[in-house]
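Re: the 341-residue chain
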Amino acid sequence: MKVSLVLLMLCLIAAGNCSAGQRKLLMGVNHDFVWTEDADIPALVQAMKDAHVQSVRIGIRWVTVEPERGEWRFDKVDSVVKQIRAAKIDILCTLMSVPAWASGVNPKEVKGFWDTFAPRDISDWKEYVRRVVSRYKNDIRYWEIWNEENGEDFYKPMPDAVAYTGILKSSYRTIKSIDPKATVILGGLQMNGIIPNPWSPIKVENFLQKIYDAGGGAYFDVVNIHPYVLSNKNEGPGYCAKLTRDTVEVMKKNGDAHKPLWVTETGLPTGNGVTEQMQVEHFNGICSELGKIPEVKALFWFALRDYPKTICGGEDSMGMIATDGRRKPIFEAYKKLAGAR
């Protein structure tokens, strides 16, 4: 463990800071604003402004806006979108989370997430997409279809590239019919969409290629990955860059060399030997390494604020802001880098 930690520190230090001449990336963050207490939202929006955040990735979950068939609830989302856009920050919206009435599952009988089961009827999903996009088309131009669909926690009962491609196609057609200028983004793939998630008991490989094989390549404008490197082996920004370059090769193989590649989640939790300063070095190194890959156009850090320990394990230390409102060193590092862009 001590040897691995030393290697990790060397990797992070070697990666260094992003230079002034580094190619510019769209800089974003992740935060579940729709699930945030109303009283906390203004301060978090102000924090994004202070940090020069250009775009924030939020979920407008189906389970939130239509918990029961035909009962549409947009009040909270309306408020969130209004406040973010008033701050002149772009929104990347993830369309996800299927209500129980649409999936047919009994939440009490499901271990873990119950809202990640696929919908039984694609027409119900299509109506959800139509409602949300029609309502927010003037405020949101980036639409992501699902989240980590190659992970067993996020696409149940089992990751299925063919089934996901059906959802992707329906979503793309619906969104483009409402707003032809909208950008449709592939759901962020765990790791790089090629190798399996090392922390998952189910090993799903080559999911991105399977989407292409199912005819999905014509139904997204942006490829999207989540190249986390959280363990103490093969750690560091260089490995993250390798994962990303491998994704680029799959894109080229399938005629998508012209499409941009976004990283809509990456980050590093503190604890277990990782200090807040090491988190900063990791962030700087990730930005530097990904900035060298011309296909990469955007980087969204996970996350704006720590999650409570009672909700998410490792995600309780990945934020730029602590749950008590303290702005961590990574907040200033992000602000410095994003402000230079």
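Residues 1-21 have pLDDT under 50 and may be disordered.
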